[in-house]
Structures are given as structure tokens and as C-alpha cells.
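Quick log. Single chain, no ligands specified.
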Amino acid sequence: MNALAQLDIISHMKNMKIHYIFSVDRKLRINSCSKELEEILRKPSSEVQGILYHKIIPRIKKDGRDAVAQALKNGKAVIVREHHSTCFCGHTTADIHITPVKDKTGKISGADVSIEGYPGCVIWERLKQSERFIDMGKISATFAHGVRSPLNAIKGAVVYLRKKYANEEKLIEFTNIMEEEISRLDNFIAKFLSTTISDQGLTETDLIPVLKKIETLTSLQAQSRNIQTFFENGYTAPVMINSFYLEHAILNVINNAIDAMPSGGRLAVKTESKISSGSEFAVIEISDTGSGMMGNNKDGIPGPSKKQGKGLGLFITREILRSCGGHLEINSKRDLGTTVKLYIPTGQIND
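-> predicted structure:
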């Protein structure tokens, strides 16, 4: 059995004490295994029968010797407390009980092995998270296909409104933005279905026009929730990023901020330049006075969940920034609000 299968067995015991049971014959070959082990191996017991147990999981040792072989030789139960096993990406600690089994004649015919452990495998945590993202990717692709027809209908309605109310200056401003964004979104969906973020390429983008457009787009939404908005555009050099993705990344954070203040509050967006590791970054700081975020992972981003898509927006923002060499910083305190900083490289190098 390969190392990945061993990793699976180590990893599936994460966070709670779970029993994994298998039996071996006198030659340490597997006779049977529990359903939990079958699920991890993705194979029925019949397909692993006859395989040496240490080809499936790391060898169980006590005092430098194979503990299962000891139990078979001495005919006595062996208990291994806090047994440490190492895989190529982490380790596990487990309590292991090895009980000899006798046949009808009273001879030792094999042993039952019970493992209860608490592994600490970093890669398994990433694999579990990746499974959720794969599911989200499938859902996103389905969504992308389904949204194009409604987009065309919306675009038609926008064109009609612009013609009917041609004298309404503010309405014309919004309908122009809406039509432009619908066209860009349709183009984005077409590319999304065949490429990844990193395939889109980097272009020189001026932050100020992008932020002014976002200020306009979010103004009505903020007003409806009695949220005060403050946009302070400091000087920054043009950034190297796909402009559509940049808007998407910023809007993800602002929409989260607005959602965190259902009954009013303060939203502040400002920009500045910073030097880090010899490179210049444009920093977009977005602060709110909402309830704060809970359940953050090591990157400061809530783990994605199926409930209302929580955490997915910030994850996408982080990936967009990573695709251009930037990064995300989050500082959040419960009931005191959240500050998110988007670092985007300008392409300028400073000595």
C-alpha cells in the first residue's frame, strides 16, 4: 500500500477518539478490518486480505520491536500507550491494544488490533479543505452556466430603462455602469469556464477609478442599511492585476462588511502605498464596525461552509491577490469590527 493510503489512515483519526480495528494472522497478514478502515482505504476487506498490516499503516513498535509480532509470539495482550508514528507530512499519537486470538485447539492463530488516536497531520487538514473547495468549484461551474441567460434578460431591461428615462441623469449613470458590468461579467463567465485566475494575466490598473466606481455601486446598498461610508483615496502607483478580478476582490470584502452591519454602522475604505521586502504595494484598507468574524483559520479567513456561502468570498479574494503576488491581512474582534487589508503589487522595485 502506498504512502498516501497510510496518510489517509493516520489522518482520519483527527480531533476525536475513533477506533480502527483490524485482525492479522500469525504472519502479520490482514484477515479483516472494520468498516471505518474500509472507508479510509476505499476498499472492502476482501481486497486487503493477505497484505502485511505494515503495508497499510505504519508499523506498530514497542521497545524497538514489532508489537504485533510480540503479542503473537508471547500469546499475551500488548498495550502501546501514546504510540508515535510519522508520515511524510506530520505525526499521530495513538493508544493501541493488541489481543492474541486462539483457534478451537487453543493455539494462537492471529491477533486483533484496536487503534484509538489523535493525529496531527497538516496536509490532511488541507486535503479536507480542498474537498470542500472542489465541491464549490463544481457548484460554481453549474452556476456560471445557469446565470448567463438571466444576465441577458437583465441587460435588455437596463437598455430599456436607459432609453425610457433618458433625462434622468443619475439613472443614466447607473444603467451605464450596469450594462458595462453585465458585459464584463458575461465575458468573465466565458473565461471562467475554460481558465483559472492565474491564466488571466496581469495588466496595469489604476486603483482610483476602480474605487470610485465601487463607491457608486455600493452607495445605495449602504444607504438602505443606514451605513455611513468614507472613501479616502491616497496616492498609489498603478497596480499589476486583472482589473475585473480587482473589483471582484474589493467588492467581496465590502459586501461582507455591509452584511456585518445590518442596522447601521461605519464603512471606511482608504488606500496607501507600502514597501515590503523591497517591493512596493498598494494597500486597500477596508474597515467596518460590525460584529466581527468568528471561526477563522490560520490565514485569518473563515472556513468555507455551505451555509449562505460563508467564507467563500474572502477565500476568492485571497486567491485573486495571491495570483498577482499580493496577500490579505485580517484583523477582527468580536463586536468591535473588522479591518481587511488587500496588498497588491505595483510592479515597482525599491532598493
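The longest helix spans residues 122-164.
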